[in-house]
């Protein structure tokens, strides 16, 4: 019998949101990446576009190293910049296991730092079952 695997859903990520009209925004995502649901994002200062938040400053993408949002839908921006829906401010509770980090964020301390940055925006990550 084949094994079926379901893609993550918004319910897997978003555990509480006080008012979607207040907490969500539509933003432009930087081209060149397919962004999965739950992507931890930072904003590039020069362009205002969002990208996966790296562990350290990346030349040309300064500002994105600070995590300020979480993507609420999967977006394919491999061929060009695309729009996506984000949780931009709280109060929001997210499942920590559903968060997707940039490949450079590969140490527990780096992930913890990103979670602290999100908490400053009111986006609180909790251990969820």
Concise synopsis of the structure shown:
The protein is an alpha+beta fold. The protein has helices at 10-13, 20-23, 108-120; strands spanning 14-17, 24-29, 33-35, 40-43, 50-52, 69-71, 75-77, 82-87, 92-95, 123-126.
Describe the structure.
The chain has 129 residues and is an alpha+beta fold. The protein has 3 helices and 10 strands, in the order αβαββββββββαβ. The strands form 3 sheets. Strands 2-8-6-4-5 form a 5-stranded antiparallel sheet. The protein has a 3-stranded mixed sheet with strand order 1-9-10. It has a two-stranded antiparallel sheet with strand order 3-7. The radius of gyration is 14 Å and the shape is globular. It has a single domain (10-126), classed as Beta Barrel (Virus Head Decoration Protein, Chain: A). It is 16% helix and 31% strand. Strand 4 (40-43) and strand 5 (50-52) form a beta hairpin.
Gross morphology: globular
Q: State Rg.
A: 14 Å
Uncertain stretches: none
Biggest sheet: strands side by side, in what order?
Answer: 2-8-6-4-5
What proportion of the residues form beta strands (DSSP E)? 25-35%
- Helix fraction bin: 10-25%
- Which CATH top level class fits? Mainly Beta
Give average pLDDT, whole number.
96
């Amino acid at each position: 019998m084949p094994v079926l695997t379901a893609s993550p859903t918004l319910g897997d990520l978003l555990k509480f949101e006080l008012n979607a009209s207040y907490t969500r925004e539509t933003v432009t995502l930087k081209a060149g990446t397919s962004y999965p649901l739950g992507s931890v994002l930072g904003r590039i200062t020069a362009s205002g576009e969002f990208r996966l938040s790296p562990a350290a400053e990346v030349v040309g993408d300064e500002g994105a190293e600070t995590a300020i949002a979480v993507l609420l839908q999967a977006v394919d921006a491999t061929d060009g910049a695309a729009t996506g829906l984000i949780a931009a401010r709280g109060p929001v509770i997210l499942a920590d296991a559903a968060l997707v980090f940039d490949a450079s964020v590969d140490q527990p301390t780096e992930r913890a730092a990103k979670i602290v940055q999100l908490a400053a925006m009111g986006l609180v990550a909790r251990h969820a079952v």
